[in-house]
Design a protein that fits this description.
elongated, Rossmann fold, 2 domains, alpha/beta, about 325 residues, D-isomer_DH_NAD-bd
Length: about 325
């Protein structure tokens, strides 16, 4: 059994894998060699380096482990045609991303950007527009593992949490649930609107100017899922029209955000360069899921964690 990694775990992690699975041949290559992929049974990747042409020539490939939650850059149709199993690391982002999201919310609520600017200007000013989280309403669009963790922490601050997904079915730590079709009705009630949606045909450009226009003028809009969930020119228009107080953006339609993009200079936008999930524990948690699944794979157990429905893309 040949297992090809297209990223490099640290040397100790590589040794641990080799020792735990002595009958497997591990190959660590960044970038990976296409000839090696042709003979690999399992491919472990972040997902952005795999093309349709690779699938066509990888005749032995049976399982792709994606060390990321997003799959939108992968050739899913070609993978499905070959009936190759795909798993990912859904769930490992919840701690670092929840911490990042809460840090941004508290920073805005407690006027930390203004306080920092005053310090740079050596200005002693108590004229800051701080407010409380207590009693606020947060609308969390995409209330999966990350959204549930954010909601759990927000509830500790006395925030009312509303989850929104395609079905309206219940999700953890949500005081109430709605479906996508009810989004227009609840947006005017929310003080924080957080999108953690994946990129799918159903979610692409889900948020339009009309959605932003019906939000509270004091609301914070946050996108920490995928950039194409938002139609960027319509968000820009809404920000110029002051349809909301702030937009906190960790993801964008085109990354990296171009140098001359208006978002860089706007006072009511916080640009986070897709770093909310960064953590020293990222690879540790990813490998933990992989090793559990590899043990099941070797045993012939097909009930593996985070199996992907390739038709849905998640």
């Amino acid at each position: 059994m040949k297992i090809l990694f297209s990223f490099l775990p640290n040397p100790d992690q590589q040794v641990n894998l080799i020792e735990e699975f002595p009958n497997a041949e591990f190959i660590f290559q960044k970038p990976f060699d296409e000839e090696t992929l042709k003979t690999a049974d399992i491919f472990v990747t972040y997902g952005e380096d795999l093309q349709a042409c690779h699938i066509a020539s990888a005749h032995h490939l049976k399982w792709i482990m994606v060390a990321s939650a997003g799959l939108e850059k992968m050739p899913l149709k070609e993978i499905a045609d070959r009936n190759i199993l795909v798993t990912n690391v859904r769930g490992i982002h919840k701690t670092p991303m929840a911490e990042s999201i809460l840090a941004h919310i508290l920073s805005i609520k407690k006027s930390l950007p203004t306080i920092a600017e005053n310090q740079r200007n050596a200005e002693w000013s108590k004229k800051v527009n701080s407010s409380e989280l207590f009693g606020a309403t947060a609308l969390i669009v995409g209330p999966g593992a990350i959204g549930g963790e954010v909601a759990r922490i927000l509830q500790a601050f006395g925030v009312h949490t509303i989850g929104c997904n395609r079905s309206g079915e219940s999700a953890n730590y949500m005081n109430e649930m709605i479906s996508f079709s009810q989004l227009d009705e609840l947006l005017p009630t929310a003080d924080i609107v957080l999108s953690i949606l994946p990129s799918t045909t159903e979610t692409r450009h889900l948020f339009t100017y009309e959605h932003f226009h019906c939000m509270k003028r004091t609301a914070i809009f946050m996108n920490f899922g995928r950039g194409d969930v938002v139609k960027e020119e319509e968000l820009l228009r809404a920000l110029k029209d002051e349809c909301m107080a702030y937009a906190v953006l960790d993801v964008f339609e085109n990354e990296p955000l171009p140098e001359g993009h208006p978002f860089w200079k706007m006072d009511n936008v916080i640009v986070s360069p897709h770093v909310s999930s960064h953590s020293s524990q990222y690879v540790v948690r990813a490998l933990d899921i992989f090793t559990k699944n590899l043990s099941k794979w070797i045993e012939g157990n097909n009930r593996m964690e985070n199996m992907i429905d390739l038709e849905k893309g998640y």
